[in-house]
């Protein structure tokens, strides 16, 4: 990636956003070219990341460079400007599927060793592990986050409210979380003095010393936490909750984030599955071990592994699993038509999206009969799940939120440099034996933090560096000043980690002029209560939160306010001076791909991209004194406003305007805005013909785009589709394509 010209790096990712990119890139390039801006692409799809791990097994033509590492380096360059689309954070079943697809395409990559037995297999697994879970975002997020609903988007939602389920006082839905033995209760925290190197070690009850992590570098002022979750307490909690749901006849659902918390949450998930089916596991446990069954990867792993057994044995196991259901509660379903439950795969139900979807639906999830039902929403970690219970209570008392009148809750998130729990994966361990878990200074042997742990507990070290905390406070003050909104720091003085942060927030607030600003610090439950009380009165409140709440709140409030987090502006001012522009705050909507393949309709909304691109152009224009780029940014924003005003977002229904149609309208409005502006006559002249052609051909183009819908399409793969087939599917309007290329030429 050479950068002679000012460059915007556009990431190529997976699933629905990647499909949309294939239609949108030619549009972007047509416009960017007019300001002499280069739009480079960087493929960081899970398929590309897998291939980049095994260059020695690929032919020269097949080799893929490690784009993610390169982008990671570029985050340290002040000129960097990256547009980052959502990508798959792969679960083990997804990794298997991607590997299989690539092998089928002639890439000689190895199988993923589920249970590595040799050193070679272990080495392969270690390489693949780099592609598991949330492997992209933490590398690129070298800044804190500023996520908000732009004014035009909020106004659109007020005028065209999405549907909201009804909440009733009689709803039996509630959130269940651990009350002891989880990370909240087993946490110790401190602010580090001086630079030091520490290790994580376990002194077992049997007198052995097991070094789990030999070296972690810490710098002066870092806040570190040693925290653990008790396996015994977790299993008891599940047992109680399953029993309670069964006795009271309420559905059971489990909400974790196994994709992001890629070490701890698969374990938390696996214990739920084993507890639910405990009789079947007691009976067949040994056989499951021999087969290498690992339900941390979901029940799908068990079903896949028992495939190799003789039919009679298989049936016996399936029968025994079914028998467990007789004395267990009904399970929430992911796909009731296909019998896929919440336990099938840990990446099917992801808490940041699943809890808001449930709350938006009036506290309902789908049961096995395809009907929406009240549910016991089990979120084992209490640290953050209490906010959901507070919101459930609030909705039961006040009814559903009203998108036509409610205020907005932007977020300033402490995210940079792998902040807090979201950076702890390489410092998270399933404790191999009971003992004392210590964070020990390598030079002096001083024990900084110590915990008593049991075998099977999950122990982790989380770090948040001082510079990001300082930057976070600054960003919160800046956003409050720019928006005129009050800021609440969601920090709980009773949680050791957050108590350390509170001290720093007080210190760093003194660096700023906060005169006239309303800045408060409240524990999570009080903060959400205060925010919701304001919200229903139409008042806006910025939430300044740590990394996990950043993730949760930027789905929660947008889904209630706007119907989706896809319409969020999601900016990451990189601490080194560059800009990372994320497109929306949600994921990659796998079910949208299914609809495209089956019916050639893509309901993915690229609004997040439109918003991100405008800010990216504006930033580039300012930094490189490129007046044309600034005009492109301004006109793109007005085109996006017009798109919303005229309701040209993608429809959910096949046969109606989809992603491609929406992009066409954006291009038309953008060209029109450029043709109409008077600041730059060249740009106006360049885009006037395109504006005229697109307007004249509007109905013909929309007709071309809509008439292809209804039938199956072949894009030549899921994880690594065929570029030509994709181009054909995503760019079906000859008139539109021709109009765009006439500008380029
Ligand atoms: N930044 C990132 O890279 C992120 C990546 N992910 C990854 O995405 C995948 C799916 O995650 P999941 O939690 O299911 O969340 P998604 O956000 O992909 O899906 C949840 C639902 O939100 C709606 N939605 C989200 N984005 C859009 C959009 N642009 N246009 C229209 N509707 C949208 C859709 O609902 P409906 O169709 O019913 O309207 C969708 O089914 C996982 O692999 C996850 O790890 C998740 C979050 C962020
Ligand atoms: O990286 C991921 O897996 C998800 C990130 C996410 O959900 C977010 O940042 O909102
Ligand atoms: Mg999220």
TrEMBL record:
Enzyme class label: oxidoreductase
A single MF term (Gene Ontology): metal ion binding
EC number: 1.1.1.42
This protein's record includes keyword Magnesium: yes
The keyword Transit peptide appears for this protein: no
A GO biological-process term: glyoxylate cycle
Name of this chain's protein: Isocitrate dehydrogenase [NADP]
Organism per entry: Gordonia desulfuricans
């Amino acid at each position: 990636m050479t950068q002679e010209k000012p460059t915007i790096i556009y990431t190529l990712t997976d699933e629905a956003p990647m499909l949309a990119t294939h239609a949108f890139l030619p549009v972007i390039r047509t416009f960017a070219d007019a300001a002499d801006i280069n739009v480079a692409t960087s493929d960081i799809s899970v398929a590309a990341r897998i291939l980049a791990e095994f260059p020695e097994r690929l032919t020269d033509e097949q080799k893929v460079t490690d784009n993610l590492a390169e982008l990671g380096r570029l985050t340290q360059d002040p000129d960097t400007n990256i547009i980052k689309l959502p990508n798959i954070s792969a679960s083990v079943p997804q990794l298997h599927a991607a590997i299989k697809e690539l092998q089928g395409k002639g890439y000689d990559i190895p199988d993923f060793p589920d249970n590595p037995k040799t050193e070679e297999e272990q080495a392969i697994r270690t390489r693949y592990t780099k592609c598991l879970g949330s492997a992209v975002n933490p590398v690129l997020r070298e800044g804190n986050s500023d996520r908000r609903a732009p004014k035009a988007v909020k106004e659109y939602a007020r005028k065209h409210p999405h549907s909201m389920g009804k909440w009733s006082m009689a709803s039996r839905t509630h959130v269940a979380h651990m009350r002891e033995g989880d990370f909240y209760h087993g946490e110790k925290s401190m602010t580090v003095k001086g630079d030091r190197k520490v290790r994580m070690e376990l002194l077992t009850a049997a007198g052995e010393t097991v070094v789990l992590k030999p070296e972690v570098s810490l710098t002066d002022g870092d806040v570190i936490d040693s925290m653990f979750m008790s396996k015994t307490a977790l299993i008891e909690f599940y047992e109680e909750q399953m029993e309670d749901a069964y006795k009271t006849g309420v559905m059971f659902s489990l909400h974790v984030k196994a994709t992001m918390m890629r070490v701890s949450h698969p374990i938390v998930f696996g214990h739920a599955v084993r507890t639910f089916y405990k009789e079947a596991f007691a009976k067949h446990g040994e056989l499951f071990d021999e087969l290498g069954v690992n339900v941390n990867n979901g029940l799908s792993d068990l079903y896949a592994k028992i495939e190799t057994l003789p039919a009679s044995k298989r049936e016996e196991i399936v029968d025994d699993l079914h028998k467990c259901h007789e004395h267990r509660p009904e399970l929430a379903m992911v796909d009731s038509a296909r019998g896929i439950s919440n336990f099938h795969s840990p990446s099917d139900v992801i808490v940041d999206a699943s809890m808001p979807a449930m709350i938006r639906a009036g506290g309902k999830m789908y049961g096995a009969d395809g009907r929406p039902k009240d549910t016991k929403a089990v979120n084992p970690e209490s640290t953050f799940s209490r906010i959901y219970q507070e919101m459930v209570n609030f909705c039961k008392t006040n009814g559903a939120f009203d998108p036509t009148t409610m205020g907005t809750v932007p977020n300033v998130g402490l995210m940079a440099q792998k902040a807090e729990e979201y950076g702890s994966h390489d410092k998270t361990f399933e404790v191999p034996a009971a003992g004392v878990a210590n964070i020990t200074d390598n030079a002096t042997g001083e024990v900084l933090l110590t915990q008593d742990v049991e075998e099977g507990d999950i122990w982790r070290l989380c770090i948040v560096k001082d510079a990001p905390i300082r930057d976070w406070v600054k960003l919160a003050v800046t956003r409050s000043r720019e928006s005129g909104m009050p800021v609440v720091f969601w920090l709980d003085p009773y949680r050791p980690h957050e108590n350390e942060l509170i001290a720093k927030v007080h210190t760093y607030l003194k660096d700023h002029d906060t005169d006239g600003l309303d800045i408060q610090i409240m524990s999570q439950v009080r903060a959400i209560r205060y925010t919701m009380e304001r919200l229903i009165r139409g008042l806006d409140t910025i939430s300044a939160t740590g990394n996990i709440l950043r993730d949760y709140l930027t789905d929660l409030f947008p889904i209630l306010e706007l119907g989706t987090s896809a319409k969020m502006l999601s900016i990451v001012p990189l601490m080194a001076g560059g800009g990372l522009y994320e497109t929306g705050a949600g994921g990659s909507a796998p079910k949208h791909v299914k609809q495209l393949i089956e019916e050639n309709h893509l309901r993915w909304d690229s609004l997040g991209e439109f918003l991100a691109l405008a800010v990216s152009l504006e930033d580039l224009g300012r930094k490189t004194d490129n007046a044309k780029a600034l005009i492109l940014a301004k006109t793109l924003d007005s085109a996006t406003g017009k798109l919303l005003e005229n309701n040209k977002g993608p429809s959910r229904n096949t046969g109606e305007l989809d992603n491609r149609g929406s992009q066409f309208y954006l291009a038309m409005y953008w060209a029109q805005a450029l043709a109409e502006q008077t600041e730059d006559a060249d740009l106006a002249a360049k885009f006037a013909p395109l504006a005229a052609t697109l307007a004249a051909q509007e109905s013909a183009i929309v007709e071309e785009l809509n008439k292809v819908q209804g039938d199956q399409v072949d894009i030549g793969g899921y994880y690594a589709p065929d570029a030509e087939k994709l181009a054909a599917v995503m760019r079906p309007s000859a008139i539109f394509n021709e109009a765009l290329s006439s500008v380029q030429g």
